[in-house]
Amino acid sequence: MPYPPIEPYETGKLKVSDLHTLYYEISGNREGTPVVFLHGGPGGGTDPRDRTFFNPAQYKIVLFDQRGAGKSTPTAVLEENTTWDLVKDTERLREHLGIEKWHVFGGSWGSTLSLAYAQSHPDRVKSLVLRGIFTLRKSELRFFYQEGASHLFPDAWEEFIAPIPESERHDMVLAYHAQLNSTDDETRLRAAKAWSKWEMSTSKLYVDPAQIAEAEKDDFANAFARIENHYFINDGWMRDGQLLEKQEIDKIRHIPCITVQGRYDVVCPATTAYDLKKVWPEMTLHIVPDAGHSSREPGTAKLLVEATDSFAHI
């Protein structure tokens, strides 16, 4: 199970462009093996509990909030905010901290960014621990935001489509894009909360009211919804299925990788993790029989900690 809560021994800010400044923190063992945690969303930000996936006696644990998310500034800004900006930021942070190679841990959107980063800088990655594989293919977005998850959560879906006029519901991501970028604050915030609530309502096998309450917070919802939608409307600035292409996987085939996937993950269904395993058979894939999408579900959390423990000495 996860390790006890700890506090960072160092926090800092890293200016990565004229516009964006990242918040980062370091906890655990100053002399330990470095690991970077790549959070989900995009736009989700980090949480103190994210430190607990790593043995603090073994790991030097680096967390940072991606552009526009969490404590990074300015918040919820879409300019200069693409997948490849975040890949460069991750590498810039590694250089800033004087780390030669590190372990990379990411779930959901964090798994997307982990794969993109590893494929861009394979010589800097010691291992990968991934959860809830998401590769931003059109088919994955269609399942969650158009038709698929809606059949399993019709009550939550009803709330999700409510802000969108019926005539625009044939493309929910596009319809939400208009409202999330509205000049009217009320329209924008209502859309942001509805978008965020849909994801929080579907993230666990057993729906968690505390997680849904997070979606009601103005600042979180605004950053989470606007940045997610911005990435999805732009297909992540990648070819459809790029992260699964053989020539991309060949770049990282030598990196040890453990993936943990909830069987009943509706946000990032198991089919994507299975597709990754097919093109990358060297990867270890664990499918958790009693879990949804969240990293905090007991079976998933246990396997994630076991994975980081197994890589602590390489």
Automatic annotation (TrEMBL):
Keywords: Aminopeptidase, Cytoplasm, Hydrolase, Protease. Its EC number is 3.4.11.5. Residues 34-294 form the AB hydrolase-1 domain. GO terms for cellular component: cytoplasm. One of its GO terms (molecular function) is aminopeptidase activity. It comes from the Eukaryota. The active site is at residues 108, 265, 293. It is found in: Cytoplasm. It is an enzyme of class 3 (hydrolase). Gene3D superfamilies: alpha/beta hydrolase (3.40.50.1820). One of its GO terms (biological process) is proteolysis. InterPro entries: AB_hydrolase_1, AB_hydrolase_fold, Peptidase_S33, Pro_iminopeptidase. It catalyses: Release of N-terminal proline from a peptide. Its main location: cytoplasm. Belongs to the peptidase S33 family. This is Proline iminopeptidase. It comes from Ceriporiopsis subvermispora (strain B) (White-rot fungus).
